[in-house]
Amino acid sequence: MVLAQTPQVFRTALLREAFAKAAADEVNASDEAGLVERLGHDVHVVHGTQGNIKITKPSDMDRPLLPRLERGKAHLA
């Protein structure tokens, strides 16, 4: 079992094919990787860090600096 992080990255054409096939088959998936696997493609895990956060709303924009500030590698202007 792995903890999956965002982003999941796929070539645009492959992702469109995966979504189209899922829609045609009336399949619901929890993520894009599951849809791509349904097409018979391998999905690879790339190890990341907890600092790889998902930015989904404006208030998330301040978060990427926090780990670097805590390690002393970034400075606020």
Describe this structure in words.
The model has no long low-confidence stretch (mean pLDDT 80). The protein has helices at 12-24, 32-38, 65-70. The chain contains three helices and no strands. Helices cover 34% and strands 0% of the residues.
Label the overall shape.
elongated
Task: List the total number of helices.
Answer: 3
Strand percentage lies at under 5%
Number of strands: 0
What is the mean predicted local confidence, pLDDT? 80
Assembly level: single chain
> Which H/E pattern describes the elements?
HHH
Task: Give the C-alpha Rg.
Answer: 17 Å
Q: Between the first and last Cα atoms, what is the distance in angstroms?
A: 41 Å
List low-pLDDT spans: none
* SSE-based structural type: mainly alpha
Q: Sheet with the most strands?
A: none
Could you give a short description of this structure?
With about 80 residues, the chain is mainly α.
Could you outline the blueprint of secondary structure elements for this entry?
Layout: H1 12-24, H2 32-38, H3 65-70
From the structure above, extract its key features.
77 residues, mainly alpha
